[in-house]
Fold:
Amino acid sequence: MEIFWELHKDLSREGPGNEASTHKALAMAKSLPTKVRVLDLGCGPGAQTISLAKVLNGDIIALDLHEPFLEQLKTRAQEEGLSSRIHARKADMAALEFEPASFDLIWSEGAIYNMGFKRGLDEWRRYLKPGGYIAVSELCWLRKDPPEELAAYWASDYPAMKDIAANLAIIAGLGYELVGHFTLPQECWRDEYYRPLGKRIAALRVAHSGDEEALSVLDLCQQEIDLYERYSGYFGYEFFVMKFLA
Ligand SMILES: C[S@@+](CC[C@H](N)C(=O)[O-])C[C@H]1O[C@@H](n2cnc3c(N)ncnc32)[C@H](O)[C@@H]1O
Structure:
């Protein structure tokens, strides 16, 4: 596990995304109040938290289980002069303890998979005010004919992964109004996530040469990057933005 955290320490993002995509999804939430109360679930080091805080007026509670990510977010918030409006908290997204109907917007980039797409959307809506919005990005199949190698990889790594239509059916079944969805562009993967991760893998290979266990963790991570390079048209992150009608 130590090598896992070395691999992920101090990266600017912990999953695919970028500021333009965060702002594009936010623009779909058209009737937010002027002063908003936001909950960012699985915030990681907080790239999207900062992007949201820059353009929203109001407070953001950003929650994650991993303390070093929260410390990273606090430092970033300070550097950006946003500390008074970003509140980083260690808590479990699957056991929230907020007042019901207390947020205008719930955000979760690349993190709802930890609970499951349906369960997350089902349980989190009780914390939304009527008319509030929820925006999540989720790994989806973009094509129905993945090569065997790719299907086997994700069957082992994320067996619950569905296609966009199946996730839209879940959204409708839970009574949300879908206000929009889009696939994250490939630069969100390459420039923002895999390039820095690839550099880290290369550096750690040198630092851990001869340590078979550490090297096998690095190999697995490199395998994920290589699969994306070969098969990026088959899967991607889809941003879904929904309105809670109560
Ligand atoms: C793939 S990362 C995405 C982080 C961030 N949103 C980003 O895009 O950079 C998923 C995050 O979920 C957090 N996480 C996992 N399980 C969690 C839980 N039960 N409650 C809160 N956070 C959790 C992890 O620590 C990690 O920061």
Summary: The chain has one domain: 16-185+234-243. The mean pLDDT is 97. The first strand starts at residue 36 and ends at 41. The beta strands are 36-41, 58-64, 86-90, 103-109, 128-141, 162-163, 177-183, 235-243.
